[in-house]
Each structure stands twice: as C-alpha cells, then as structure tokens.
Specification:
The protein is α/β, with parallel strands linked by helices. It has ten helices and 13 strands. The protein has a five-stranded mixed barrel. Strands 2-3 form a two-stranded antiparallel sheet. The radius of gyration is 19 Å and the shape is globular. The structure holds 1-O-phosphono-alpha-D-glucopyranose.
C-alpha cells in the first residue's frame, strides 16, 4: 500500500502576483475549488490517506482549508449552501494532514527532502498541485501510477509529450520503451536549453521509493543553487530501474496564467455548468 502523498507547496507563485501576495498559489481556485483540493482528491482516490504538505511562510490558508470551520458551518447549517462543503469535509474526514516548513526555497529536490520527516521509510506519491491532471475512463493519473508501482516496485514518473519549443520548461526524460506507455529511463535533464534527449516532459506526479532521500543528499546544486529532483532521479536511474508512464489524459500547467484560464474554462464547460443545473454541490472532480 502507498499511504502517503507529499505536496511541495512552499513556492511563491510570482506569476500570479498580486493575487499570491497573501494567498498561496495552491489556493487559487479552478471555478470554486482550490487547486490543491483537486490534488488531495486525486491522492485519496489513489488510496493515499496521509497527506504530507511542505509549506513555507504565508501558507497558513492551506492548513485552514483542510480543517473544520465550525463558525462557517454553523452559519450555513440550515441553508442548502452547506452541501458545497461536502467535498472538502469528506477529505478532512478521510485523510490525515501533516505539515512541515521549508525554510528556504532551494528547488524541488530540496522541498521533497524537507518532507522526509513526514514520509519516513516507505514509498510515497508526490503531487505538484500546479499540474491539474484529468485521467480518462474514471481513473485518475495517480491511481494508474499506484497500479504500476505494485507491478514494478520502482520509482514511477508521469510524463507527457510536449512540442519541441516547450522542452526547456520541463524535466525531460528518455529511454527504452518496454510497452506502449512505459519507458525505462536512461536519461533525464532538467529544463534543457538545447539538445533535449526527447520531448517527453515530466508532469507533476511521481511515485518515489524512499531511497530517493539518499540520492537527493548526493545531488549537487544546479547553477542557481537549487537541488533538482530530476538530477536526484537521474542518479537513482543509473543504479536502479525508474519508469516513466506516458499520460494520455488532459493536463493543465496551472502555474502559467494562460493554462490556468484554460483549466477554468475546461472545468466550467465539462463539469460545472452541467453539474450546477443538476445538483446543488456543483462539485468538480479530477477523473474524466
Ligand atoms: C518541476 C520539475 C520539472 C517538471 C515540472 C512539472 O518544475 O522540476 O522537472 O517538469 O515541475 O510541472 P517547476 O515547474 O517547479 O519549475
């Protein structure tokens, strides 16, 4: 069983200033639900009930969101609006939340290693809330990755094909196809400025074996002084098998303003409008 899912959530979200001056970027809504809630729903759907969040300064709204608000519930308890809290209340009931703070921003590898104290010595999921992924056939991306983990017992990374001009924005992997959608990774480069090894870009879903923490501690900082998870995974890939799973669902990189708007439009068109006319909760989900 993979019980734990780590959410690095210490970043500033400068692309959304001034909104993110006092609101964590993970709390920006897609329609009426914060980005991070979609991620936690995806983790729970995949059976991960221990939600481990790496926060930083100015992120207290995350803790408040995943906690009861008795005053609010009291205020709306006799109105039909209370149904709007059903989704978040289910997460609060079904998951355990724990937090640790990243004191300085030193890259995704550093954020993940900060979470070691919450994760312990077991395989765990990682979800980057910015990446909103909608799986097909009613199955979320993380659920598919958990199944693959059970079969292969190694670190699994989700990837998607991106156009050539976008490879510089992502970790890029290459390797040998062992089936239609699975690649045994032999090379990984974080945001290559030239000669990307392929156009398979890492998207924000990982299942990591706990030895990743040793590999992170062996990782040299990049030229900006950041410890990149991609570099740590490359060390792991030299010694062990790591698989990349090619995701064919819908994904929005909500760290970018244009994709954030597209995600809002997508959810409005596909879920919210129809749902609103049929049910008061207008809850939108991460499985398509
Ligand atoms: C991070 C990872 C990168 C990955 C991306 C996915 O980059 O370092 O390898 O492709 O997430 O969104 P960031 O977006 O934090 O710069």
């Amino acid at each position: 069983m993979i019980r734990k899912c780590l959410f690095p959530a210490a970043g500033y979200g400068t692309r959304f200033l001034p909104a993110t001056k006092s609101i964590p970027k993970e709390m920006l809504p897609i329609i009426s639900k914060p980005l991070m809630q979609y991620g936690v729903e995806e983790a729970l759907e995949a059976g991960m009930t221990d939600i481990c969040i790496v926060t930083g300064r100015g992120k207290r709204a995350i803790e408040d969101h995943f906690d009861n608000n008795y005053e609010l519930e009291h205020q709306i308890k006799l109105s039909e609006k209370k149904i709007k809290l059903n989704g978040i209340n289910k997460l609060i009931d079904d998951c355990k939340f724990s937090y640790t703070r990243q004191k300085e921003m030193k890259g995704l590898g550093h954020a993940v290693s900060t979470g070691a104290t919450l994760v312990g010595n077991e395989a765990f999921g990682v979800i980057l809330s910015d990446d909103l992924c909608i799986g097909g056939n009613g199955v979320s991306l993380m659920s598919t990755m958990v199944e693959l983990y059970h079969e292969h017992q190694c670190s699994i990374i989700a990837v998607m094909e991106v156009p050539d001009h976008q490879t510089q924005n992502y970790g890029i992997v290459s390797g040998e196809y062992i089936s239609n959608d699975l690649v045994k990774i032999s090379s990984m480069v974080e945001k290559p400025t030239r000669n990307p090894p392929s156009n398979l870009a890492i998207i924000g879903r990982y299942i990591l074996t706990p030895d990743i923490f040793d590999y992170i501690s062996q990782t040299m900082p990049d030229r900006n002084g950041e410890i990149q998870l991609t570099d740590s995974l490359m060390i792991q890939a030299r010694e062990k098998t790591i698989l990349a799973y090619k995701f064919h669902g819908v994904r929005f990189d909500c760290g970018r303003v244009d994709e954030y708007i597209k995600a809002n439009n997508f959810f409005y068109e596909h879920y919210y409008r129809e749902c609103k006319s049929n049910c008061a909760s207008a809850s939108v989900n991460i499985v398509g």
